[in-house]
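Reply to dn_fold:

You asked what the input looked like. This is it:
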Amino acid sequence: MIYKVYYQNDKKRNPKREDTHSLYLEADTEVEARAQVEEHTEHNIEFIEAIEGNTLAYEQQNPNYKLTEFNE
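and this is what came back:
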């Protein structure tokens, strides 16, 4: 499953909508997606959304679409 993770760059500042970023990640569950991001980054996760079907096809048309892979 592909997940879209909305995040702030660090945990020290209060979240601001203008500073929200996103990444795309493949994981079996939302819990696993969160664990991967928390283990490999300092991001402050705001929301994780599963995307599939038409939504995934739409997101893949975005030139910024790229699956993030964390190396163990």
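The chain has a mean pLDDT of 91.
Hope that clears it up.
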